[in-house]
Amino acid sequence: MPVHGLCTPRFAGVRAEFERNLAERGEVGASVHLTVDGETVVDLWGGLADPVRGRRWTDYTFTHIWTATQGATALCAHLLAVRGQLDLLAPVSRYWPEFGKGGKDSVLVGQLLDHQAGLPGLRELLPHGAFYDWELMTEHLAAAEPLWTPGARHGFHAFTFGFLIGELVRRITGGSLAQFFERELAGPLDLDFWLTLPPDLDEAAAPMVPQPELSELIPTMHLTAITDPDSPAGRVLLNNGGYLAPGEADSRAARAAVLGGTGGLTNARGLSLLYRPLAVGGSVDGLRLLDRAAVARAGAVSSAGSLDAVTLVPSRYSLGFSKACDNRHLPPADREGVLWSEQAFGACGMGGAVGFADPGARMSFGYVMNRQGPGLGVNERGQALIDAAYRGLGYHRVNGGIWFR
Length: 405
Fold this sequence. Notes:
InterPro entries: Beta-lactam-related (IPR001466), Beta-lactam/transpept-like (IPR012338), Beta-lactamase/esterase (IPR052907)
Number of strands: 13
Number of helices: 13
Largest sheet: 7 strands, antiparallel
Strand content: 5-15%
Shape: globular
Protein name: CubicO group peptidase (Beta-lactamase class C family)
Number of domains: 2
Organism: Crossiella cryophila
Radius of gyration: 19 Å
Oligomer: single chain
Distance between the termini: 34 Å
Helix content: 25-40%
């Protein structure tokens, strides 16, 4: 498949790896976008958006990005914080009084953002389609007892993150998370990025290529869930109202819902341009989102130091974003970590989508694809593009680890 778009000579290596993804690594359709100093230096796309119909990927093709959505949701919280409407050190119950039930009265807003709250899943069996009922999910989360003592450990809140942060946004602003995101971020930044997809855009979306079985996609987490359904992994994978059923995430019901943890739809340009202001100090083109102190706070490690209670592999988080984590020492099926620089922060989607800002490199990056690969981190296709971007910037790394200047 031919590759289309823009690539400046300095980043020819990104184009070469993108072409290799399509030719050698099983890529079906994808896009990659990169800015440096606020300027676009890579904007490439290629392959098939819908291999069944033979529809090609174009410059405006978008698809489901799973948990790479969380960067957009986290940024909404940071916007409210910098405006003085949300205190990240305050108890969640200050804004959402019902949340104080179940021994959660001392859980802090920051612990929702950095995955320490102990609410990645629920004990009560969720009915089919539960994720499409906002009131149901937020009532369950408000009443729930945490699966571990909040603050004692961290574990990826893949599905619940959007409801937890989104309800704070709703309580503060009076509107939905999707409405706030559109008004304050997607609109002003001119992003093709939706937390709720209008029905007239359904046909334009690239459906996910049939994904691997969960036993292949996230093997250790899946095995733990099967052998110990009461574990955090079990609560996440086995109690999601059918959301992980093949094709469900591409359904009209899923696209119409507000799923700030896992339901975003965009392309590489949308992801990269979302992070563009954060890469250059918090403002771009006269639009200020955050000040430099807020950008630093968003990117500082907040939870780490032990195995992730949900994914059962090492992970590191800042307040709402993933940080670099080298998991190459693990068995092949669990190796996918996050290998960028220590100053970078962003979010990865199950199967490979990724977006991040690197303020030290003054770079923003986005990669989106329709064929999922293994893991919850960056797999070989995305990592090859990230590596080429850092090489173009003159960065180095030791023994294949994180990048440094």
